[in-house]
Each structure stands twice: as C-alpha cells, then as structure tokens.
Inverse folding.
C-alpha cells in the first residue's frame, strides 16, 4: 500500500501524539517535587507494565542471543539515565522549555549516527545541525541568565535518549518493534528500582493516580505515533510535531502560570525547523532518515 495515500490520517495521529505527550509533561509538572525524580520515574514505568500483560506469554518464549541481551541492557541503562534527568528537569523548568529542549534529541541522533552507524553528513545536514544548536543557545542564553541544573539535565536527557534510539535502530532489524518497546519498559523498570529505593518516599493515592495517568498517556502516545508513521511518511508527519511546542506554551501559561518566553519559542522553532528540513531533504533523496523521531519519548 502506498504510504502517501493517507496523509490526513498521519497528520491527525501525529497531532494526537503531541497532545498525549503534552499531557505527560503536564501531569509530571502537577506531581511536583515531593516524590524524588528517580522514584517518580520508577513508578511511572512500574505502573506502565500493566500494558505489557497481553504480551506476557510471547515474552516468556523469547529467545535472544548474548549480544542482543547486552544491547538491550545497555539501552535500558541509557534510557534509565535519560528518564531520571527528564523527571528532574520537569520539577525545575517551565513545560515549554522542557518541550523545546526535547527537540534536540533527533539532532544528537544525527551526530551520533556518524560515529556509530557510519552515516555521512552532507553540507545541508551540517547547516541544519548548526541551526539547531543556535536554537539551543537561544533557549539557554548562557551569559545572559543563570543556567538552572534543569537545563544541564535536559542536555543530558537528549544525549542519553539519542544513544537509546540508535540502539533501538540496531535492534529493530533483529526483533519485532513490540519486543523492542516491551524490553525497554522492563529494563528501565529494573534499572530505576535501586535508584528509587535509595530515595523512597511513600506516595499518596493521588500521586499514584497521577503517575498512572503519565504511564497511560505515554503508552497512548507511542501507539498513536505508530499509527501516524503507518499512515504517512515521516516527511509529512514531522512538521506536525511543532504543535506540541505550541500546546506546551498554552498549558504552561493557563494551568501553571508560566508566561510565554519568546526566546524559548524562537529557539524551539529553530530546532524544529532544522529537524524538519533534515527529514524532508532525506525523503527527497530517498535515503533512510535516522533522526525520524519527534522528540524525547518517555
């Protein structure tokens, strides 16, 4: 079937994906700082395991090589670090700022793919990366304001998730996508457990409900993103990811008294534009698009 036959559906599902992940960030922001970041992340993944129950039988029969287990384990460690840093940043930064910096993830993927996957950087790709990094500088504005630890955490988040994505790219050619997602959820839950126990604070019923909402919206977002990619090429759906920044600004402004920061909007727009350009250019050249991910995914 021609993937370009349903662009409207692809755009719709990607817009829904953006709403799901804005809901994730809003709920984590609502949770506040009482529960430590590592524990919040652990509970989100632990509660999210309920969505893997239909796969329990097939996972029990899974047979992987030693090298595949090593790659899944390494991916779990990288993703664990990224998730903890993201939850920490959400307690420190406005929602729009976290969302804008999330878009650095595909840029990091593009750079790391040169070293680990042997991909080449054409001149236009280099210009797009430079533009994205300028966008990051607009958001951070070092020297013009004091950088928060949350900013450093977000830079680390995007880097760790980029490494996780590259490993997923390698593993997706060896096992099904469902297995890749399922084992990520399991390995991250295991990786977060000791970190959570070290700082454990007993959550209230309300906090558990919020974290289950985080897990539900995150799972729904992954599913609708898959529907979007199945309905239309990434070059069609990628520009729609910009709406997530718009919605993040509105949610932060209306519900969390975070006034719009036009430096953040401008920097985020520049990063999104760079990612969209890379995607469009690679699609025109009929090449595989390594950074074909909207942003960091929890």
């Amino acid at each position: 079937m021609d993937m370009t036959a349903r662009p409207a559906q692809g755009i719709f599902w990607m817009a829904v994906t953006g709403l799901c992940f804005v809901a994730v960030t809003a709920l984590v922001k609502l949770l506040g700082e009482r529960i430590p970041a590592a524990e919040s992340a652990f509970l989100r993944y632990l509660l999210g395991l309920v969505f893997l129950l239909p796969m329990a039988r097939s996972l029990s029969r899974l047979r992987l090589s030693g090298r595949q287990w090593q790659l899944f384990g390494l991916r779990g460690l990288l993703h664990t670090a990224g998730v903890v840093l993201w939850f920490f940043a959400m307690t420190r930064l406005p929602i729009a700022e976290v969302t804008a910096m999330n878009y650095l993830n595909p840029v990091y993927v593009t750079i790391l793919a040169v070293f680990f996957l042997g991909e080449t950087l054409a001149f236009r790709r280099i210009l797009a990366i430079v533009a994205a990094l300028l966008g990051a500088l607009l958001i951070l504005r070092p020297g013009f304001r004091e950088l928060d630890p949350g900013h450093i955490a977000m830079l680390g988040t995007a880097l760790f998730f980029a490494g996780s994505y590259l490993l997923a790219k390698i593993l997706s050619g060896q096992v099904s996508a469902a297995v890749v997602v399922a084992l990520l959820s399991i390995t991250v839950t295991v990786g977060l457990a000791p970190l959570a126990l070290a700082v454990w604070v007993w959550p209230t019923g309300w906090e558990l409900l919020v974290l289950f909402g985080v897990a539900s919206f995150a799972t729904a977002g992954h599913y609708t993103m898959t529907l979007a990619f199945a309905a239309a090429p990434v070059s069609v759906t990628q520009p729609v990811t910009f709406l997530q920044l718009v919605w993040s600004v509105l949610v932060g402004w209306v519900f969390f008294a975070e006034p719009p920061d036009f430096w953040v909007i401008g920097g985020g727009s520049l990063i999104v534009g760079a990612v969209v350009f890379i995607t469009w250019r690679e699609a025109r050249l009929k090449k595989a698009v390594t950074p074909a991910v909207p942003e960091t995914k929890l």
Remarks:
- Confidence is low (pLDDT under 50) at residues 289-296.
